[in-house]
Amino acid sequence: MNGSVKRHTPAYPLLLRGLSPLTHLILLALMITSLLPARTRGQDSSNLLAVKAEFVREFSLPGRNNQLLRPAAIHIDRKFNEVLVSDPGHNRIVIFDDNGVYRFEFSGGEVFSTPGDLGVDSEGQIYVVGSTRAGKRLFVFDFDGIYLQELELFTSDGKRVDIGSMTLSEQDELFVYNANQPGITVFSPDGELLREIALFEELSERTLNEMIAGTLTAAQGKLFLPLPSMGMVNLYSFEGEFLQSVGYKGSRVGEMSFPVRAALTPDGLLLVLDKHRHNVLCFDQNYQFIGEFGGRGFNPGWFYHPNLLDVDAGGQIYVGQIFSNRIQVCHLPQVISDRRSPIGGNSD
Amino acid sequence: MRKVLLLTAAFCFVAAGTALAFHDAGVAHCNGCHTMHNSEDGALVDPDSPNGNAWLLRDATASDVCLSCHGDHLGAVFGDDPLAPPSPIGAGNFVYLLEDNLNDGHAGASNPIGGDAAGHNIVAPSRGVAADATLMSSPGGSFPSSSLGCSSCHDPHGNDDFRMLYSAGPIQDGLFNFTNAAPEATGRSIFGGAPGAHTAYQDGMSSWCGNCHGDFHDEANGRLIHPSGSAIGGTIAQTYNLYNGTADITGGAQATAYLEEVPFEDAANTSIMSTEGPSAGSKVMCLTCHRAHASSGPDAGRWDFSVTLLEEDGLESGSYALPDPYGDDDQRSLCNKCHKKDANDHIATP
Q1: Any residues with CB less than 8 A from the CB of B191 and at least 6 apart, and which?
Q2: Rounded to whole angstroms, how far apart are CA atoms B269 and A243?
Q3: In-domain check, residue A186
Q4: DSSP-assigned letters across all residues of B121-157
Q5: pLDDT, mean over chain A
Q6: Fewest C-beta in 10 Å: which of A248, A269, B40, B171?
């Protein structure tokens, strides 16, 4: 950059003949600004922060005509090292090991017609949000995929919970984002109402109307709720206390255009999937932006409107999308991993 | 000059102060959808299109962006499950494009009609749908199937027309030219509506559809085709008003005759809560029988045209059964709302 400016400097007086003094001042200011380091100019060193994904593998099923069709959810069971995938096109849940090897599957059968969010409790019971003609319901299967029961979820005023998304904590508490009345309702594994968390009470009706919520995630003692239309992820305690927001709306490096899912790595890095920037934003344990990977594309390691995200016990990152029915496994790029602050440290 | 500056400043102030919805007064931020140079911070925004996309879009397929907000939310026009679609409003749901069989006619199970026939095949790879596999262009016209998307009909930058539909003029940056104005209608809010709320169609829908579909339903030159955009006349209007289902074909009244599944156009349709039936001057239009987006009946039918009784819908194909507005096991096709051919079809129940 400096060399480039110097090369053009001799021509400067010739080019500017006849311009007003104000124009001279503006151009001078621009030249000085361009000589300053990027960080001093208020911009980040962006192209160092955005890198390609480190592609590991893509999930596939045995057999030529047996592939996933419009995958709708990924859940990693870190206890048993299994990867569960909702496969709405075939109305089934497919289970892989963490090397991507197919283990088994079970069908929604007559219970539901389209599976969605998934969870596994500490006893290995599998929770599936399934679509029925009466709406979305929560169903429980045992670890072999044998149907056990439907959990009837009601709020304290007797209204059926309109399931927007569902997540299960390490303590076996079910957190359900209520799509109709924005809030989180907490249940025991057998469907008993434990508590209700009201959200966004400060927002106007109009703002609420236009607000879109992503998929709720419970991890490491916190709830992560992406807000795609606002370009941020809200963090809450399990008791419902608002902790902070991470990120801000935008389309440049480090900004969130349409965050839809969040996940935590085993060592506490926050990953946020941006559907419109087709990438994964990474934040350290203090929620400081440390880099992003991925981008729009059709080859391995690139994403197209990704909507699924999770991380396994080994830190491998799973990114899924409907286009091409892909679930890709990536490593956290080293250049981003190197920027993480020591656990408990401060990136500032 | 000072006046111009003042006016400009005043306009900016007013525009900023209104803080309207995403599309109401232009989009929130242009770079949400567009990139000027396909480059940000030295990196290609779209690495698969190094020369950039048409209209400087960040993505080659604009519909994928539209559906991020309007697929599951804000109108919910593309649900998750073709067997359990969001409650139908007006134009119907694109989720039926995912169906593997829509055929509920005789032997429909073994003669599948795929989801392509469910409606307008928008190109939205993020939802698993692509251009129409059967039709290369719009039937009756020449709009290319491969370019069909949300923004083929709706102006993403917003306008004052019903549902932000384009009016006459070039669309999609000159890809196609509309010759007919946007229809006049009043719709319920995409944020929801009171029970019974429906789109109130007033005028111009058929000619607007004709922008792409030409004279598909034009009776001219002796063609034996169901009319569209024409007045229904007194006889049909009376039939519509009296018809209250197969079991009660003459028990209705004009004041309560309106059936959301068989809407009509009338300049007097100004209320989305109206229950009033048609008059002789009311018009049959494309959307009297078809949904604009898609439905779980072939040809985007508001009801399945190939079943005898509405309760047969979904039985052969396994697809979503379009609701019977009369809730009667013996209810016949809704063609009868205007034509009353089921007058002698009452099935005697023991």
Answers
A1: A209, B74
A2: 50
A3: yes
A4: ---BGGGTB-S-SS-SB-TTS--BGGG-SGGGTB-TT
A5: 87
A6: A248
Confirm whether A333 is domain-assigned.
yes
Name the strands in the sheet holding A147-151, side by side, starting at the edge strand that comes first in the sequence.
A114-120, A126-132, A135-141, A147-151
B79 occurs within a structural domain: yes
| Structure letter (DSSP) for residue B166 | -
- The alpha carbon of A305 is separated from its chain's Cα centroid by a whole number of angstroms, namely 12
Q: Do A212 and B80 lie within an 8 Å CB cutoff?
A: no
- Does A257 contact B at CB distance below 8 Å? yes
Q: Does A229 touch chain B (CB under 8 A)?
A: yes
Task: Domain count for chain A, please give it.
Answer: 1
Q: Is residue B12 part of a domain?
A: no
Residue in chain B lying closest to A49 (CA): B41
Residue B53 in any domain: the answer is no
* Closest alpha carbon to A175 in A192, A159, A187: A187
Rounded Cα–Cα distance for residues B148 and B286 (Å): 19
Query: Are A276 and B65 within 8 A, CB to CB?
Result: yes
What number of other Cβ atoms are within 10 A of residue A268's Cβ? 16
Hey, what are A274's tokens?
Answer: 């941006």
Contact list in B for residue A206 (CB cut-off 8 A) is: 21
* Beta strands A222-227 and A232-237, pairing class: antiparallel
Cα–Cα distance list, A53 to A163, A329, B331 (Å): 33, 9, 57
Q: What is the CATH number of the domain that holds A307?
A: 2.120.10.30
E strand or H helix at B71, and its extent? Answer: none
A25 located within any domain: no
Give the pLDDT confidence of A15-57 residue by residue, as tens digits.
444 556 665 555 555 554 444 433 333 344 445 688 999 999 9
Is residue A138 within 8 Å of residue A153, measured between CB atoms? yes
Binary contact (A296, B46; C-beta < 8 A):
yes
CA A32, chain centre distance (Å): 40
Residue A33 φ/ψ, nearest 5 degrees: -60, -40
Number of domains in chain B: 1
Inter-residue contact B59 to B66 (CB < 8 Å): no
Half-sphere exposure of A15 (CA within 13 A, CB side): 9
CB contacts of A163 in chain B (<8 Å) are none
Q: Complex ipTM, two decimals? A: 0.83
Two tokens at A96? 């892989």
Residues 6+ apart with CB under 8 A from B166: B153, B154, B155, B159, B178, B182
Q: Smallest Cα–Cα separation from A338: which of A282, A259, A276, A279?
A: A282
Q: Is A116 on the interface with B (CB under 8 A)?
A: yes
Min Cα distance B116 → chain A (Å) is: 16
| Domain of A205, in residue numbers | 50-337
Domain interval for residue B214: 62-339
- pLDDT tens digits, residue range B283-333? 999 999 999 999 999 999 999 999 999 999 999 999 999 999 999 999 999
DSSP string of A266-298, one letter each residue: TT--EEEEETTTTEEEEE-TT--EEEEEE-B-S
3-state SS, residue B319 = coil
- Cα distance between the two ends of chain B: 86
Local confidence band at A66 (pLDDT 50, 70, 90 cut-offs): confident
